[in-house]
Write a structure and sequence with these properties.
- There is one protein chain.
- This protein is about 40% helix and about 15% strand.
- It is an alpha/beta fold.
- Strands 10, 11, 12, 13, 14, 15, 16 and 17 form an 8-stranded mixed sheet that branches. The chain has a 7-stranded mixed sheet with strand order 1-2-3-4-5-7-9, sandwiched between helices.
- α4 packs parallel to α5 and α12 runs parallel beside α14.
- The structure holds hexanoyl-coenzyme A (HXC).
- The site of hexanoyl-coenzyme A has 15 residues, from α5 and β6.
- Hexanoyl-coenzyme A binds next to α5 and β6.
């Protein structure tokens, strides 16, 4: 009896030692040679020192049942849990040194176990992806295994934060798990994501293209919008994940942790009184306002390279995490276009799902005109943002900084779509459309018959500006709760958040709404 137990222990230790070596020294050297860390090194960097607890270290795939020694201990993925800034997170990290990190049945079962645990205990799940995709030898079992993960991604959506780091290949149907999660991080030069790789592209459309050009980090950060964050290497990527986690609650029943950055709530910034240029046609940088009002001037921008005409990200006010959405007049004059609408809508929905109050800073001349936008679906995409705001029951506070025209005024969390507290700066211009367009429509005949067209138009424009280009009418109607001094913005926002602390959202009884996807 004693001998048998000892045998089991010896085998166990053997398997454990084997698992800890991953694919062995040569493959680890290859991994490092590509500028990538190993799966275990990544976990160590992500988590607080010494907090990692591993699950299923010797688990193998089903193919190895007959002789456990023949299996692949760990099955190409490392899973478990640990802490980030003292809070628990579940993790999995695919090990490219073991069969290219390919996903077979056992590998998937390990991932599913930590996903299930995340949902059960209510903590974020962070996946580090570095995989050749479905394990070819496992055939349809590996496809079924992906299905198991997709199902869990969807069921956990809006319940616990889900974060994906793409740190190597991610191809074929495998891309759909990360894209179902809340935030995707990619690493420059070493990661790529595509549904069909360069070889298929060559065969089907006879085009030569590299993996980097097809689905590298910058393609997804700037063009497709799939990547929310890009880092230049694994170390910086994992540091950014830690930063993000610190802004988030562990689950949808909790509030994000308070963090006191010792920044007085009544701090004023006189420079803000001069932020908006006197000439309404001039641009300025909205990020000046953002960094000025937030605690400790700390802001984590999401999708900072995509649809830069709108800014989304996390900061803190009075220690509390807020989600910030702001038009950026320095890029495309801050218009709402297809990409900006979709980017902001998804961000608003994330914040609403996880009890993060929304602060909206408005300077929007309208929706982007033109056939490209219309045929590209601006009606559908703009509706997403409208839907997302209206549906959001978290505290919603708006500051109209300058332009707020037409439908875009309404969409940007106006009072009319249930904004809770809506302020305007004295520089706010709230109207159905800009002065030139309005004058041209209202006084077309008069301007047309005038001997001096330009002067007639300019006069009518000036008249329109005097009547509509200010926040007074909106304030008189009660659509704006107060016109505030720019330098007081931080204090007014923090007070408004305090008031809305106990806001109760209405939940209509239905299976789910039908957001115009
Ligand atoms: C089994 C795999 C594998 C896979 C890689 N390996 N991908 N084993 N199944 N899918 C193994 C290789 O055989 C090799 O083993 C080791 O991993 C390292 O791979 P290399 O090719 O040497 O590495 P590298 O040159 O860096 O190339 C990486 C790669 C390439 C580009 C990912 O391996 C590759 O193209 N793999 C196949 C990718 C693929 O088509 N996957 C299926 C996608 S479709 P040895 O023992 O030689 O070191 C998919 C569907 C998902 O995933 C569906 C979800 C619904």
């Amino acid at each position: 009896m004693e001998t048998r137990e000892n045998d089991a222990l010896i085998i166990l230790e053997d398997l454990r030692a084997q698992a800890l070596q991953g694919g062995g020294a040569d493959r680890i050297a290859d991994q490092h040679g590509k500028g990538k860390l190993t799966a275990r090194e990544r976990i160590d960097l992500l988590l607080d020192k010494g907090t990692f607890e591993e699950f299923d270290v010797i688990k193998t795939g089903r193919g190895s049942v007959t002789d456990v020694k023949e299996g692949i201990p760990g099955d190409g993925v490392i899973t478990g849990y640990g802490e980030i800034s003292g809070r628990e997170v579940m993790v999995f990290s695919q090990d490219f040194t073991v069969m290219g990190g390919s996903l077979g049945e056992g590998h998937s079962q390990k991932i599913c176990k930590v996903m299930d645990m995340a949902a059960k205990v209510g903590c974020p799940i962070i996946g580090m992806n570095d995989s050749g995709g479905a394990r070819i030898q496992d055939g349809v079992d590996s496809l079924a295994a992906y299905g198991e993960i997709f199902v869990r991604n969807v069921k956990a959506s809006g319940v616990v934060p889900q974060i994906s780091c793409i740190m190597g290949p991610c191809a074929g149907g495998a891309v759909y798990s990360p894209s179902l999660t809340d935030f995707v991080f990619m690493v420059e030069s070493t990661s790529y994501m595509f549904v069909t790789g360069p070889n298929v592209v060559k065969t089907v459309i006879h085009k030569d293209i590299s993996s980097e050009e097809l689905g590298g980090a910058w393609i997804h950060a700037e063009r497709s919008g799939v990547a929310h964050f890009v880092a230049s290497n694994d170390i910086l990527c994992l540091r950014d994940v830690r930063k993000l986690i610190n802004y988030l609650p562990s689950n949808n029943a909790q509030r994000a942790p308070l963090l006191d950055l010792s920044d007085p709530s009544d701090r004023t910034d006189p420079a803000l009184d001069y932020l908006v240029p006197v000439d309404p046609g001039k641009a300025y940088d909205m990020s000046v306002l953002i960094y000025s009002i937030l605690d400790g001037a700390e802001f984590l921008e999401v999708q900072s390279h995509f649809a830069r005409n709108i800014i989304c990200g996390f900061g803190r006010l009075g220690g509390q995490t807020i989600g910030l959405v702001a038009n950026q007049p320095a890029v495309l004059a801050g218009v709402l276009d297809n990409d900006a609408s979709v980017k902001a809508a998804r961000f608003v929905r994330f914040c609403d799902a996880f009890n993060i109050p929304l602060i909206v800073l408005v300077d929007v001349p309208g929706f982007m005109p033109g056939p490209e936008q219309e045929s590209g679906g601006i009606i559908r995409h703009g509706a997403k943002l409208l839907y997302a705001f209206i549906e959001a029951t978290v505290p919603r506070i708006t500051v109209i900084v300058r332009k707020a025209y037409g439908g875009a005024y309404l969409v940007m969390n106006s009072k009319h779509i249930l904004g809770d507290i809506n302020y305007a700066w004295p520089s706010a211009e709230i109207a159905v459309m800009g002065p030139r367009g309005a004058a041209e429509i209202l006084y077309r005949k008069e301007i047309g018959t005038s001997p001096d067209h330009e002067k007639a138009l300019a006069d009518r424009e000036a008249q329109y500006r005097a009547t509509f280009e200010n926040p007074l009418v909106a304030a008189q109607r009660g659509y704006i709760d107060d016109v505030i001094f720019p330098h007081q913005t931080r204090h007014r926002l923090i007070r408004a958040l305090q008031l809305l602390e106990g806001k109760k959202g209405e939940e209509p009884r239905r299976k789910h709404g039908n957001i115009p996807l």
